[in-house]
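Q: Start with the shorter request: fold the first protein.
A: Done. Sequence, then structure:
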Amino acid sequence: MILRLVAFAALCLITTATLSGCKHIPSVVILATEYEFSPSTIEVKAGQIRIDLRNVGNSSHALRIEGQQEKVVIAPGERRVFLITLSPGSYRFTCPLGDHEGLGMTGTLVVHP
Protein backbone atom coordinates (compact mmCIF):
# COMPACT_ATOMS: atom_id res chain seq x y z
CA MET A 1 0.00 0.00 0.00
CA ILE A 2 2.80 2.45 0.90
CA LEU A 3 4.59 1.62 -2.36
CA ARG A 4 1.42 2.47 -4.32
CA LEU A 5 1.10 5.80 -2.50
CA VAL A 6 4.74 6.67 -3.22
CA ALA A 7 4.29 5.72 -6.89
CA PHE A 8 1.11 7.80 -7.10
CA ALA A 9 2.81 10.82 -5.49
CA ALA A 10 5.75 10.52 -7.91
CA LEU A 11 3.35 10.33 -10.86
CA CYS A 12 1.52 13.44 -9.62
CA LEU A 13 4.81 15.35 -9.31
CA ILE A 14 5.91 14.32 -12.81
CA THR A 15 2.52 15.26 -14.28
CA THR A 16 2.48 18.62 -12.50
CA ALA A 17 6.05 19.39 -13.60
CA THR A 18 5.24 18.46 -17.20
CA LEU A 19 2.06 20.56 -17.29
CA SER A 20 3.69 23.57 -15.66
CA GLY A 21 6.78 23.38 -17.87
CA CYS A 22 9.11 23.29 -14.84
CA LYS A 23 9.48 27.06 -14.99
CA HIS A 24 12.50 28.28 -13.02
CA ILE A 25 11.68 31.17 -10.71
CA PRO A 26 14.68 33.24 -9.59
CA SER A 27 15.12 33.29 -5.81
CA VAL A 28 16.51 36.09 -3.67
CA VAL A 29 17.39 35.79 0.04
CA ILE A 30 17.11 39.04 2.01
CA LEU A 31 18.34 39.16 5.60
CA ALA A 32 16.79 41.78 7.90
CA THR A 33 18.61 42.90 11.05
CA GLU A 34 19.08 46.09 13.08
CA TYR A 35 18.99 48.31 10.96
CA GLU A 36 19.86 47.03 7.53
CA PHE A 37 18.98 44.64 4.76
CA SER A 38 21.60 42.33 3.33
CA PRO A 39 22.14 42.52 0.47
CA SER A 40 20.97 46.09 0.05
CA THR A 41 21.30 46.00 -3.74
CA ILE A 42 19.75 43.10 -5.64
CA GLU A 43 19.67 42.47 -9.40
CA VAL A 44 17.21 40.08 -11.04
CA LYS A 45 15.50 39.49 -14.38
CA ALA A 46 11.96 40.75 -14.96
CA GLY A 47 9.05 38.46 -14.24
CA GLN A 48 8.17 36.37 -11.25
CA ILE A 49 10.66 36.46 -8.36
CA ARG A 50 10.72 34.38 -5.18
CA ILE A 51 11.67 36.48 -2.15
CA ASP A 52 13.00 34.60 0.89
CA LEU A 53 12.89 37.15 3.73
CA ARG A 54 14.65 36.14 6.96
CA ASN A 55 14.67 38.15 10.18
CA VAL A 56 18.06 37.54 11.82
CA GLY A 57 17.65 40.52 14.13
CA ASN A 58 16.26 41.01 17.62
CA SER A 59 13.15 43.03 16.75
CA SER A 60 10.33 42.76 14.24
CA HIS A 61 11.06 43.97 10.74
CA ALA A 62 9.10 44.33 7.52
CA LEU A 63 9.72 44.55 3.80
CA ARG A 64 7.85 46.91 1.53
CA ILE A 65 8.82 47.04 -2.14
CA GLU A 66 8.00 50.19 -4.10
CA GLY A 67 4.90 49.67 -6.23
CA GLN A 68 3.66 46.68 -4.22
CA GLN A 69 0.48 46.98 -2.15
CA GLU A 70 1.49 44.72 0.73
CA LYS A 71 4.27 44.78 3.27
CA VAL A 72 5.59 41.56 4.79
CA VAL A 73 6.13 41.71 8.57
CA ILE A 74 8.29 39.12 10.34
CA ALA A 75 9.19 38.61 13.99
CA PRO A 76 12.73 37.80 15.15
CA GLY A 77 13.84 34.39 13.88
CA GLU A 78 11.00 34.12 11.37
CA ARG A 79 11.23 33.50 7.65
CA ARG A 80 8.66 34.26 4.93
CA VAL A 81 8.87 33.15 1.31
CA PHE A 82 6.60 34.84 -1.21
CA LEU A 83 6.33 35.56 -4.93
CA ILE A 84 6.15 38.92 -6.66
CA THR A 85 6.11 39.89 -10.33
CA LEU A 86 8.12 42.92 -11.44
CA SER A 87 8.70 44.68 -14.74
CA PRO A 88 12.11 46.12 -15.67
CA GLY A 89 13.08 49.10 -13.53
CA SER A 90 14.57 50.10 -10.21
CA TYR A 91 12.51 49.54 -7.06
CA ARG A 92 13.33 50.89 -3.62
CA PHE A 93 12.60 48.59 -0.68
CA THR A 94 12.32 49.64 2.95
CA CYS A 95 11.37 48.54 6.45
CA PRO A 96 8.30 50.68 7.21
CA LEU A 97 8.22 49.81 10.93
CA GLY A 98 8.98 52.58 13.42
CA ASP A 99 12.00 54.64 12.35
CA HIS A 100 13.81 51.66 10.77
CA GLU A 101 13.84 53.28 7.32
CA GLY A 102 15.43 56.44 8.73
CA LEU A 103 18.04 54.30 10.49
CA GLY A 104 19.13 52.78 7.18
CA MET A 105 16.82 49.86 6.43
CA THR A 106 16.57 50.55 2.71
CA GLY A 107 17.74 48.91 -0.46
CA THR A 108 17.33 48.79 -4.21
CA LEU A 109 15.96 46.00 -6.36
CA VAL A 110 17.16 46.41 -9.96
CA VAL A 111 15.06 44.46 -12.45
CA HIS A 112 16.57 43.81 -15.88
CA PRO A 113 14.63 42.87 -19.05
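Q: Next, the second protein, separately.
A: Sequence, then structure:
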Amino acid sequence: MSQGGGVRRLSSRGGVVPFLLLLALVLLAILPESLTGIDPLSQHARLVLAPPLTSGHPLGCDFLGRDLWSRLVSGSLVSLTVGVSVGILSTVIGGVWGILSGFLGRPWDPVMMRTLEIWYALPEILIATLLMLVLGHGLLAVVVALSIGGWMGVARVLRAETLRLREAVFMDAARSSGVSPLRLVFRHFLPNVMPVVFVMVLFRIPGGILGESTLSFLGLGLAPPQASWGVLVNEGWKALPVSAFMLIWPAAFIVLSLVSFQILADRLGRRFGVGR
Protein backbone atom coordinates (compact mmCIF):
# COMPACT_ATOMS: atom_id res chain seq x y z
CA MET A 1 0.00 0.00 0.00
CA SER A 2 1.49 3.30 -0.99
CA GLN A 3 1.14 6.47 1.04
CA GLY A 4 0.22 8.23 -2.22
CA GLY A 5 -2.94 6.11 -2.38
CA GLY A 6 -3.77 7.21 1.15
CA VAL A 7 -3.39 10.87 0.22
CA ARG A 8 -5.68 10.44 -2.81
CA ARG A 9 -8.29 8.85 -0.62
CA LEU A 10 -8.08 11.76 1.83
CA SER A 11 -8.93 14.18 -0.92
CA SER A 12 -11.76 12.08 -2.30
CA ARG A 13 -13.48 11.71 1.08
CA GLY A 14 -13.31 15.18 2.57
CA GLY A 15 -9.81 15.16 4.08
CA VAL A 16 -8.85 18.14 1.95
CA VAL A 17 -10.54 20.66 4.30
CA PRO A 18 -8.59 19.71 7.45
CA PHE A 19 -5.45 19.39 5.33
CA LEU A 20 -5.88 22.98 4.11
CA LEU A 21 -6.58 24.19 7.65
CA LEU A 22 -3.38 22.55 8.88
CA LEU A 23 -1.44 23.98 5.96
CA ALA A 24 -2.69 27.44 6.91
CA LEU A 25 -1.64 26.92 10.54
CA VAL A 26 1.81 25.75 9.45
CA LEU A 27 2.20 28.83 7.25
CA LEU A 28 1.21 30.98 10.23
CA ALA A 29 3.86 29.24 12.30
CA ILE A 30 6.76 29.58 9.85
CA LEU A 31 5.96 33.05 8.45
CA PRO A 32 4.96 35.10 11.52
CA GLU A 33 6.80 38.32 10.71
CA SER A 34 5.54 38.38 7.12
CA LEU A 35 1.91 37.93 8.18
CA THR A 36 1.68 40.32 11.11
CA GLY A 37 4.45 42.91 10.93
CA ILE A 38 3.91 43.52 14.66
CA ASP A 39 6.15 42.52 17.57
CA PRO A 40 4.07 40.14 19.73
CA LEU A 41 5.80 41.47 22.86
CA SER A 42 5.31 45.16 22.08
CA GLN A 43 3.11 46.83 24.72
CA HIS A 44 0.91 49.90 24.24
CA ALA A 45 -0.89 51.43 27.22
CA ARG A 46 -3.53 53.09 25.06
CA LEU A 47 -4.48 49.75 23.48
CA VAL A 48 -5.10 47.79 26.69
CA LEU A 49 -8.02 45.40 26.02
CA ALA A 50 -8.74 47.06 22.69
CA PRO A 51 -11.65 45.17 21.06
CA PRO A 52 -11.44 43.23 17.77
CA LEU A 53 -11.35 45.27 14.55
CA THR A 54 -9.42 48.07 16.22
CA SER A 55 -7.35 49.82 13.55
CA GLY A 56 -4.24 47.73 12.88
CA HIS A 57 -5.31 45.06 15.40
CA PRO A 58 -7.93 42.77 13.80
CA LEU A 59 -8.32 40.49 16.85
CA GLY A 60 -7.86 43.22 19.46
CA CYS A 61 -5.23 43.53 22.19
CA ASP A 62 -4.63 41.91 25.58
CA PHE A 63 -4.41 43.43 29.06
CA LEU A 64 -0.90 44.73 28.35
CA GLY A 65 -1.83 46.27 25.00
CA ARG A 66 -0.09 43.51 22.99
CA ASP A 67 -1.56 42.62 19.60
CA LEU A 68 -3.50 39.34 19.88
CA TRP A 69 -3.14 38.41 16.21
CA SER A 70 0.66 38.55 16.37
CA ARG A 71 0.66 36.61 19.66
CA LEU A 72 -1.58 33.91 18.20
CA VAL A 73 0.65 33.62 15.14
CA SER A 74 3.76 33.50 17.33
CA GLY A 75 2.10 30.91 19.56
CA SER A 76 1.27 28.73 16.56
CA LEU A 77 4.94 27.87 16.08
CA VAL A 78 5.36 26.92 19.74
CA SER A 79 2.17 24.85 20.01
CA LEU A 80 2.69 23.01 16.72
CA THR A 81 6.34 22.37 17.60
CA VAL A 82 5.27 20.84 20.90
CA GLY A 83 2.55 18.78 19.21
CA VAL A 84 4.80 17.39 16.48
CA SER A 85 7.68 16.76 18.90
CA VAL A 86 5.41 14.91 21.34
CA GLY A 87 3.95 12.93 18.44
CA ILE A 88 7.39 11.83 17.26
CA LEU A 89 8.98 11.21 20.67
CA SER A 90 6.03 9.33 22.20
CA THR A 91 5.78 7.20 19.04
CA VAL A 92 9.49 6.39 19.24
CA ILE A 93 9.20 5.38 22.91
CA GLY A 94 5.99 3.42 22.42
CA GLY A 95 7.19 1.95 19.14
CA VAL A 96 10.40 0.58 20.60
CA TRP A 97 8.52 -0.89 23.57
CA GLY A 98 5.71 -2.40 21.50
CA ILE A 99 7.89 -3.79 18.70
CA LEU A 100 10.36 -5.33 21.15
CA SER A 101 7.50 -6.86 23.12
CA GLY A 102 6.01 -8.35 19.96
CA PHE A 103 9.30 -9.68 18.63
CA LEU A 104 10.71 -11.07 21.88
CA GLY A 105 7.64 -13.09 22.82
CA ARG A 106 7.68 -15.13 26.02
CA PRO A 107 8.85 -14.63 28.70
CA TRP A 108 9.46 -10.94 28.02
CA ASP A 109 6.19 -10.08 26.28
CA PRO A 110 3.87 -10.77 29.27
CA VAL A 111 6.17 -8.84 31.63
CA MET A 112 6.42 -5.85 29.31
CA MET A 113 2.66 -5.78 28.70
CA ARG A 114 1.79 -6.00 32.42
CA THR A 115 4.22 -3.12 33.04
CA LEU A 116 2.55 -1.16 30.26
CA GLU A 117 -0.92 -1.81 31.72
CA ILE A 118 0.16 -0.49 35.12
CA TRP A 119 1.53 2.65 33.45
CA TYR A 120 -1.59 2.90 31.26
CA ALA A 121 -3.84 2.98 34.33
CA LEU A 122 -2.42 6.38 35.29
CA PRO A 123 -3.97 9.42 33.54
CA GLU A 124 -1.62 10.93 30.97
CA ILE A 125 -2.06 14.48 32.25
CA LEU A 126 -1.35 13.33 35.83
CA ILE A 127 1.95 11.77 34.79
CA ALA A 128 2.86 14.89 32.79
CA THR A 129 1.91 17.19 35.68
CA LEU A 130 4.07 15.27 38.15
CA LEU A 131 7.00 15.28 35.74
CA MET A 132 6.63 19.03 35.17
CA LEU A 133 6.94 19.59 38.91
CA VAL A 134 10.33 17.85 38.68
CA LEU A 135 11.54 19.16 35.31
CA GLY A 136 10.36 22.76 35.69
CA HIS A 137 9.10 25.11 32.98
CA GLY A 138 10.29 25.16 29.39
CA LEU A 139 9.62 23.80 25.93
CA LEU A 140 11.85 20.72 26.30
CA ALA A 141 10.36 19.87 29.69
CA VAL A 142 6.82 20.01 28.27
CA VAL A 143 7.74 17.74 25.34
CA VAL A 144 9.49 15.18 27.55
CA ALA A 145 6.72 15.15 30.17
CA LEU A 146 3.91 14.70 27.63
CA SER A 147 5.85 12.05 25.70
CA ILE A 148 6.59 9.97 28.79
CA GLY A 149 2.97 10.33 29.83
CA GLY A 150 1.46 9.31 26.50
CA TRP A 151 3.37 6.50 24.76
CA MET A 152 1.32 3.54 26.05
CA GLY A 153 -1.38 3.53 23.38
CA VAL A 154 1.28 3.60 20.67
CA ALA A 155 3.02 0.62 22.24
CA ARG A 156 -0.17 -1.45 22.25
CA VAL A 157 -0.95 -0.72 18.60
CA LEU A 158 2.58 -1.43 17.38
CA ARG A 159 2.85 -4.60 19.44
CA ALA A 160 -0.33 -5.87 17.78
CA GLU A 161 1.00 -4.89 14.35
CA THR A 162 4.32 -6.61 15.11
CA LEU A 163 2.55 -9.83 16.10
CA ARG A 164 0.54 -9.70 12.89
CA LEU A 165 3.55 -9.09 10.68
CA ARG A 166 5.71 -11.65 12.50
CA GLU A 167 3.29 -14.38 11.48
CA ALA A 168 2.69 -13.04 7.95
CA VAL A 169 3.32 -15.38 5.01
CA PHE A 170 5.96 -13.15 3.43
CA MET A 171 7.92 -13.10 6.72
CA ASP A 172 7.81 -16.91 6.92
CA ALA A 173 8.96 -17.10 3.32
CA ALA A 174 11.87 -14.74 4.04
CA ARG A 175 12.93 -16.82 7.07
CA SER A 176 12.71 -20.04 5.06
CA SER A 177 14.96 -18.59 2.38
CA GLY A 178 17.70 -18.01 4.97
CA VAL A 179 17.46 -14.21 5.24
CA SER A 180 19.49 -12.86 8.17
CA PRO A 181 17.54 -11.36 11.13
CA LEU A 182 18.93 -7.90 10.38
CA ARG A 183 17.87 -8.07 6.74
CA LEU A 184 14.50 -9.47 7.77
CA VAL A 185 13.86 -6.46 9.98
CA PHE A 186 15.10 -3.74 7.62
CA ARG A 187 13.99 -5.24 4.30
CA HIS A 188 10.67 -6.85 5.20
CA PHE A 189 9.41 -5.69 8.60
CA LEU A 190 10.14 -1.95 8.80
CA PRO A 191 8.75 -1.01 5.35
CA ASN A 192 5.45 -2.64 6.31
CA VAL A 193 5.22 -1.14 9.80
CA MET A 194 6.23 2.44 8.88
CA PRO A 195 2.75 3.47 7.61
CA VAL A 196 1.37 2.48 11.02
CA VAL A 197 4.12 4.46 12.75
CA PHE A 198 3.28 7.52 10.65
CA VAL A 199 -0.42 7.25 11.55
CA MET A 200 0.42 6.93 15.24
CA VAL A 201 2.51 10.11 15.07
CA LEU A 202 -0.52 11.90 13.62
CA PHE A 203 -2.76 10.47 16.34
CA ARG A 204 -0.39 11.72 19.05
CA ILE A 205 0.04 15.29 17.74
CA PRO A 206 -3.41 16.48 18.98
CA GLY A 207 -2.62 15.00 22.39
CA GLY A 208 0.62 17.00 22.47
CA ILE A 209 -1.13 20.25 21.55
CA LEU A 210 -3.93 19.70 24.06
CA GLY A 211 -1.48 18.56 26.73
CA GLU A 212 0.66 21.69 26.34
CA SER A 213 -2.47 23.84 26.49
CA THR A 214 -3.61 22.09 29.66
CA LEU A 215 -0.23 22.36 31.39
CA SER A 216 0.15 26.02 30.42
CA PHE A 217 -3.42 26.75 31.54
CA LEU A 218 -2.55 25.23 34.94
CA GLY A 219 0.61 27.35 35.09
CA LEU A 220 2.91 24.32 34.80
CA GLY A 221 3.88 24.54 31.13
CA LEU A 222 5.39 27.42 29.23
CA ALA A 223 5.67 30.70 31.09
CA PRO A 224 4.78 34.23 29.87
CA PRO A 225 5.87 36.28 28.02
CA GLN A 226 6.50 33.27 25.74
CA ALA A 227 3.38 32.79 23.66
CA SER A 228 1.66 29.50 22.98
CA TRP A 229 -2.01 28.72 22.57
CA GLY A 230 -2.06 27.31 26.10
CA VAL A 231 -0.44 30.44 27.57
CA LEU A 232 -2.95 32.60 25.69
CA VAL A 233 -5.86 30.51 27.01
CA ASN A 234 -4.48 31.00 30.52
CA GLU A 235 -4.29 34.77 30.00
CA GLY A 236 -7.73 34.81 28.36
CA TRP A 237 -9.27 32.93 31.28
CA LYS A 238 -7.92 35.51 33.73
CA ALA A 239 -9.36 38.32 31.59
CA LEU A 240 -12.69 36.56 30.93
CA PRO A 241 -14.84 38.86 33.12
CA VAL A 242 -13.80 41.94 31.15
CA SER A 243 -12.70 40.60 27.75
CA ALA A 244 -14.10 37.29 26.46
CA PHE A 245 -12.39 37.57 23.06
CA MET A 246 -8.97 37.00 24.66
CA LEU A 247 -10.11 33.45 25.46
CA ILE A 248 -12.15 32.81 22.31
CA TRP A 249 -9.33 33.26 19.75
CA PRO A 250 -6.73 30.83 21.18
CA ALA A 251 -9.46 28.31 22.06
CA ALA A 252 -10.67 28.43 18.44
CA PHE A 253 -7.13 27.81 17.13
CA ILE A 254 -6.74 24.82 19.47
CA VAL A 255 -10.08 23.30 18.43
CA LEU A 256 -9.39 23.76 14.71
CA SER A 257 -5.96 22.14 14.97
CA LEU A 258 -7.20 19.22 17.10
CA VAL A 259 -10.14 18.46 14.81
CA SER A 260 -8.01 18.75 11.67
CA PHE A 261 -5.24 16.45 12.92
CA GLN A 262 -7.81 13.99 14.25
CA ILE A 263 -9.68 13.76 10.95
CA LEU A 264 -6.47 13.27 8.96
CA ALA A 265 -5.17 10.65 11.38
CA ASP A 266 -8.51 8.85 11.41
CA ARG A 267 -8.72 8.71 7.62
CA LEU A 268 -5.15 7.52 7.20
CA GLY A 269 -5.71 5.06 10.03
CA ARG A 270 -8.68 3.58 8.19
CA ARG A 271 -6.62 3.47 5.00
CA PHE A 272 -3.93 1.37 6.70
CA GLY A 273 -6.26 -0.48 9.07
CA VAL A 274 -4.85 1.18 12.18
CA GLY A 275 -6.79 1.59 15.42
CA ARG A 276 -5.58 3.35 18.55
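Q: Describe the second briefly.
A: The CA atoms of residues 161 and 167 lie 10 Å apart. The chain has one domain: 15-31+66-272.
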